[in-house]
Structure formats: C-alpha cells, structure tokens
Amino acid sequence: MTKMKVGYVALIGRPNVGKSTLLNKMLGQKVAITSDKPQTTRISILGIKTTQKGQIIFVDNPGIHKPLHNLNKRMMSFVYSALETSNLINLLIDVTLKFGHGDEFVLETLKNISTPIFLLINKVDIVKKEKILLLIDKYKDLLNFKEIIPISALKGTNLDILEDLTYDNLPEAQKIFSDDEISDQSQRFLFSEIVREKVLSHVKQELPFVTAVYMDRLEDEIKDSSPNALSGNKKQVQYINATIFVEKETHRRIVIGKQGRLIKTIGTQARQELEQILGKRVYLDLWVKVKENWRDSPDVLDLIESQK
Ligand SMILES: Nc1nc2c(ncn2[C@@H]2O[C@H](COP(=O)(O)OP(=O)(O)O)[C@@H](O)[C@H]2O)c(=O)[nH]1
Ligand SMILES: [Mg+2]
C-alpha cells in the first residue's frame, strides 16, 4: 500500500492578501468568498484537497489584525487555534504593499511557533521581478521560513510547486476526510456568505465591517402541479430568505439604495450564483435589519457562527 501524506495547512496573513483566493484556486472550486475589502473572512473554514499523494486540509482564516470588537476577538481566536493545530503554516503577503506595522504584528504572532512556515509572496502577476526579490531579501532574515515561494493565487502561478512542497512537509497518515468532501461548512453558511460577498462588492467605507447575513429559510418546494410533477419531471424551486444585519439606519439606507435599486442588484447577483450552484431556480428574499452594536452582541455572533 502506498503511504499517504495528510495534514492541516493554516493560511495566515493580513486581511486582503489573498488567502481565500488561494484556497479556492487550490481546490478548483469556490468555498470561501473573497473581496477587495479587509476582514471578509470571519470564521475559519476547511478546504480539503484529496489527490493520489494524500490529503491537504487547508484552514482559511480571518486576517491577522489587532482586535477592537468582540467580533474581531473571536476572529483572532480562530487564527491562534489554527496556528496551534496545523502541520504547516502558509504565511501570505501582498507583494504590492510596503512592509508596515501590520506585518510586524503578524511576524510577532508567529515568532514563538515551532510549526514549519512557508512564506508565500502573492500577487506576483501585477509587479516586476525586482520588487519580488526586494521582498524576499527583506523577509528572509525576519523569520526562519522553511520555503519562500512567489505565487499568484489568482492566476495559479507556482501553485503546483506549492502543492509538492506542502506534501514534502506533511506527515504520513490515514486520510481524515472522504474523497468527495471539499469543505466543513454547511450549504447554509456558504449561501449566507455569498449574499454577504455581493453586499461587500457594492459598498464602501465602514459598511463591510458592520454587515452580517443570516439565512432565515432555505427550503425546496415543488412548484409544478401538472401531471408531469408526479411522473418525476419536477420543477423544483428553492426558496431562500435571508436577513442582512447592519448597525445603523444610515447603513440600512445605503444597502437598500435609491428606490431599492442596490438591494435589487445584490439580490439578483446572489440569486444567479445560488442558481448556478443548485442547478435550479431560486427565489431569494432579502431583508435589511438594523441591529445596533451586533459586533459586540454574543447572541448575534452565536447565531451567525451557528450557521456553519
Ligand atoms: N492581482 C491579484 N489579485 C489577487 C491575487 N490574490 C488575491 N487577489 C485579490 O485580492 C483581494 C483580496 O483577496 P481575498 O482572497 O479576499 O483576501 P483574504 O482577505 O486574504 O482572504 C481580492 O480582490 C482578490 O481578487 C493575486 O494573485 N493577484
Ligand atoms: Mg479571506
């Protein structure tokens, strides 16, 4: 019997460096939402890649940042626990950004960890080679990296190398998940995230931080009552109701937009993606509700986490 390589790989880095994009690309499927706004990922999710060599279990994490709200404290607790439980850490950095306090904070977080760390210099598709070399030079003495790999998560550059080197650093073990499992999140959670992704893509300033989505209803209904419906040729429609939480009335007005135009666009984009995943028609009903200070409310945070 051939020996399998199996283990957990934590994706770590500042907000927006491309952790979720890398996860989706490695899996060849969208399991995590992405956006150009910071703090898109709030809860750690697993992405499982099974190949002939073994199983790589990626742990996509919230970005490393100094927590100010209870929400952010919870986000960071996911990061710390991922660091403690993984076999390998992939630290991502954005090659287009200057080294700053945020990076120092990240390195500080990783200083006392004995797990091997890869430095992944991401977004190399949009910079010149010299810039990559400068960053390698800057980072190579800051921490004892096992490997330093320039990648493009978006374009897929060097991800084959990353996969090979990852297997080299994982222990021999039995597979943990079955071959067809790709994530540990529920469909309900993924769907609420897709709605949130569409909100994030249309709003600016503080709104991404104060937006949360909860799925109220997610059910199939057979719409067609014609004789065909009984013969198995059913036209199924999925009814989905979701609530978008924001913190203030002004936020609510922004998300709804003039004459409800923005919420309509958000709804249409989310519905189209959900229909693609489900392969059937979707009726999506969105409500926008004001819930003051939900980021510090344990009840709302529990409710949202309970969806996963
Ligand atoms: N040009 C380029 N953009 C990228 C790359 N990887 C991620 N991005 C973009 O960077 C933004 C943040 O990505 P995301 O995966 O959400 O970052 P996360 O917060 O670390 O999970 C998104 O707009 C991505 O499309 C890359 O390799 N090249
Ligand atoms: Mg993310």
Automatic annotation (TrEMBL):
Question: Which residue ranges does the record assign to the Era-type G domain?
Answer: 5-172
* Domain KH type-2 per the UniProt entry, residue ranges: 214-292
Name the CDD domains on file.
Answer: Era, KH-II_Era
Name the Pfam families for this protein: KH_2 (PF07650), MMR_HSR1 (PF01926)
> What are the recorded Gene Ontology BP terms?
ribosomal small subunit assembly
Q: Kindly indicate whether the keyword Plastid belongs to this entry.
A: no
Keyword set, alphabetical order:
GTP-binding, Nucleotide-binding, RNA-binding
GO molecular function of the protein, one example?
rRNA binding
GO terms for cellular component: cytosol
Is this entry keyworded Nucleotidyltransferase?
no
Q: Which family does it belong to?
A: Belongs to the TRAFAC class TrmE-Era-EngA-EngB-Septin-like GTPase superfamily. Era GTPase family.
Q: What is this protein called?
A: Era-type G domain-containing protein
Q: Which species is this UniProt entry from?
A: marine sediment metagenome
